[in-house]
Write a structure and sequence with these properties.
The complex is a heterodimer of chains A (about 325) and B (about 210). In chain A, about 65% of the residues lie in helices and about 0% in strands. Chain A contains 15 helices and no strands. In chain A, helix 4 (about 80-90) packs antiparallel against helix 5, helix 8 packs across helix 10 (about 220-230) and helix 8 (about 190-205) crosses helix 12 (about 255-270). The longest helix of chain A has 27 residues, at about 1-30. The longest helix of chain B is centred in the middle third of the chain and has 15 residues, at about 90-100. In chain B, strands 2-3-1-5-6-4 form a 6-stranded mixed beta sheet, with helices on one face. Chain B is built from 3 helices and 6 strands. The model of chain B is unreliable at about 65-75, about 100-160 and about 175-214 (pLDDT under 50). The chains are: A mainly alpha (about 325), B alpha/beta (about 210). At the A-B interface, helix 4, helix 10 and helix 14 of A face strand 2 of B.
Chain lengths: ~325, ~210
Amino acid sequence: GFRAGHTAAILQQEAALTEASKLRKLSWSGIPKQVRPIAWKLLSGYLPANVDRRESTLQRKRKEYFAFVEQYYDSRNDESHQDTYRQIHIDIPRMSPEVLRLQPKVTEIFERILFIWAIRHPASGYVQGINDLVTPFFVVFVCEYIEEEEVENFDVSSLPEEVLQNIEADSYWCMSKLLDGIQDNYTFAQPGIQKKVKMLEELVSRIDEQVHRHLDQHEVKYLQFAFRWMNNLLMREVPLRCTIRLWDTYQSEPEGFSHFHLYVCAAFLVRWRKEILEEKDFQELLIFLQNLPTIHWGNEEISVLLAEAYRLKFAFADAPNHYKK
Amino acid sequence: MDSSKKVDLKIIIIGALGVGKTSLLHQYVHKTFYEDYRTTLGASILTKVIAVDNTPLKLQVSEEIASAWCKEKHIPYFEVSAKNDINVAQAFETLAKQALTTVVWESSCFPQPCRRKAANAPCRCAATPELTAAGRAPVSPPPAAATRAGRAPGGFPSSSIPPGSSSGVVLWLQQPRDARGRSGKPPARKTGRLNGVALRQAGCWQERPEVLGW
């Protein structure tokens, strides 16, 4: 009867939650490519843990997204929205050339996702840097349909229209979930970024005083290099494959994008301590910090970085100043 | 080249998004026009050593976005093209020369960018004096700036930059008005009007960090 059904539902929910926590644990150290699309949808909170509700949720959310498109997208040339649209429109061709996004079909999809997000989030609207955050989701979800290794050369328009629409809606919602957690990075004056850059400075001064002093002596301000690190989550500093690996962990870690990222940035900066200490003037330091040599980085480097970040988090999270060396 | 007369000169490039600040800078420093480049987030920097009247000048060129605060000032401008390398070096070097001889020692920083909701945003800058003409009376820099320059506050010359010091110049890059597409097609952005003004930058930064101080 009712009671039995009720108990069954609770048990099912508990099983789902257990599964969710297992998934987080497993995903922390990297998700295999084949299961990444579904894992990301679960980890981001876009898909419910409960298996029975997944398909209906997907259908409902996809419908909802295209209702937004129907409702708002025609207004992109209206006086009140044309600045937003224009900025998105000229930014998309100026994103990393390493992905499939310069294909007209991809440009179209990115414009829609970003415009709808901006209109639905007037507190921040579109801010440069947000555009980059669509890419990992889009690429991961496209990969579900690609056999070969090389994503870059894949012709997106060869996918059926319906598949592309699903990818677009899923990317929109997952990006929205991500941005919900870091919205103050993009509201006016970008207080989230300001705060995190200050926290990074504080953290580095505690974990590596020599590097901190060196930067200070040469008048390098953390804001001058770390603004970008916070603004698009290190996406400009490492190759896309590394960002995707990084996000496996960010989505498994509580407050991964908003908090754990700080420790990753600290580990990332200190990773270059030798090179930093060798640079002896302001502009050489800044040029180095804005062009870090990560082009050949892969999973291994990211794993080392994440392990170090985890260690730092363990040692310094909520730690009072007496932790200072 | 007499390297004892070496001067660090900092140039900031500001202007609306997509006008070609990065392209201009790359053309000047690397003599190249990149068809594909990424949007600049925050600020970026390049450097170049030149000699102006036998004084070696290290230009620290930083490209930035900020409000068009110098719009109404009477500032010389150049027509430039980053794509075709028209007037790029001339513009940078004329500004460098101008900065060497007629620099105004300013202790201000930029006013708050007015691009988005600036009215209700507090500015962290202490003062934003109007820049009128070269040769105005020097103003005392804030302590931060004095430390940075390695000298005690006060007693700044108003007519020239002493060797071994650093100074700053702003290039304000504009799009030609007719090229500003309302929507749809992106504007032809590689041609712009370049305005220059010499000033001394103090070390402070904006709430919205599109302008980074030194």
